[in-house]
Amino acid sequence: MKALIPFIKLFKHQWVMMLTGLFLSVLTLIAGIALLSLSGWFLSAAAVAGLTIAATQAFNYFTPAGGVRILSMLRTASRYGERLATHEATFRLLTSLRVWAWRKILPLSARNMQSLRQGELLNRLVSDIDTLDHIYLRLITPVLSALIMTGCLYLFVFWIDVSLANLLCISLLLIWLTLPLVFYFLGKKPGINQIKAKRLLRVRLLEFVQGFAEISLFCATDSFREKIEKSESELLESQCAMANVMALSQAVLIMCHGSLVVIVLYSAASGIGEHQPPGPMLALTAFMVLACIEMLMPVSAAFQHVSACINAAERINELVNQKPDIEFNDESTAVITTGNLQLKNIEFSYNKETGKVLKNISLSLRPGEKTALLGKTGCGKSTLLSMITREWEPDSGSIFLDSENIKEYSQKALRQGISLMSQRIYLFSGTLRSNLTLAQPDSPEYESVEEQKEAEKQNDKYLIEVLEKVGLSALTKGENPLDTWIGEGGRQLSGGEQRRIGVARVLLRNAPLLLLDEPTEGLDKRTEREILSLLFEFAADKSLLMISHRLTAMPEMDRIYLMEDGVLRAFGSHDDLLAKDEYYRSLYRQLN
Prior knowledge:
four-stranded antiparallel beta sheet, ABC transporter transmembrane region fold
């Protein structure tokens, strides 16, 4: 249960809505039990009053009839309000949980996430957090409501008959305490199995969808589908087991409740308090006990969700309680202004078993220089860029920016001083405008709405100009082109258009240091020359480090480094390498 404490603490942010939902839940129970109890008394009392003419004329039909109507309307209204309040509180809690989880995850480095696959991480952030909504909706609210209602029943019945109050409420408390504990243990294993099966199914589905092209290419579709079908079968089995536990809990609860009704009827048959014989009061008591099933039914099923909630909480805690492998100096006021970059004796390995990926790497990049990093796939080029952006931390060696150790910069300063274009262009499910403005700095505060609208209008014009520069004029046509929805992952765009949007982001971010990882991947040679010319023009006064498999722009580079197996084996200008390096010379002739 300790795993749930951090999440329960977050409830304080929604305590008003939560208390509102709890109050309405108790009010619904009170109205429901009172309605059935009053109806039973009214019918019985009316029947007794009809035995004699005098009693018939003296009996007040209007007050209890009005009470029945008022209670029925109150129950309907409170039930509706309780549903609104509890679900609103739940959705707000889930929002708070996701924001809290993201804030805990954002400082984590790639090494912290190294053991998690994408599908596993997605499952923890989506499915496990969704599971935690049971804490409030199916655990706290029904359990507290039943406990409070038991206290209210005791006070009411105590006013009528002390012994009957003790019998009724002690029995209810025994049911309230015993059944949830029993069915917690019965539902523990199926609940955990259900979460594991859901997680495994999601991971396998995500891997199958993301790698469908490669899976089809290597004729592995059937084996992947068999794994997915197996995961689906395991999920259905766990759901069936949980359904059986739930059905058993409902059956046992109904049996216990029926037994309680019989016991109370037997005890009350001889008299209730001052009412000898009990008459209509017996009907009131019987219907009151019958109505208690409404508050007991959710309690029996509530604790089946405890095991699932605890398992989900443990998995999320395992993720968010990690200490960030990389820490930034957020108190620093240093900023990157020139993009002067120096790497000294950098060594790095992803883990001890795989060996070193980077070995004694040293290079320098002066302001205004254009440097290329060439090498075969897997030699460590992209890993070296991740050292500069502090996605990974080198095992040894130092990195300096503007003659300052990179560790002395705040995270914000690094983000503002470095512009990175990675091999994969990440596009989000949104408009063209929202995917472009990600690269722009935060907007300043405006004194008036008119001033803000004018600034946004001017920025839209600038965005369209940048799109036209990178050859995306086709996306700037029509009315409100920036509001075009590009879909998740940019599915509405071609690969070349996605690459150009990545270039547009670079142009929108005026950072002194540019890191380009295969910026023209997937483009034809003519388009490649146009894009590189545009990037070089933009980076005329900036430091540029570019990874490439192509040699199209190498004559324009100030310095070229050749990397092989994590080692910089040669460097120099294009002409120098043509003269002294046979591999570079043959490669250049082959690709050009």
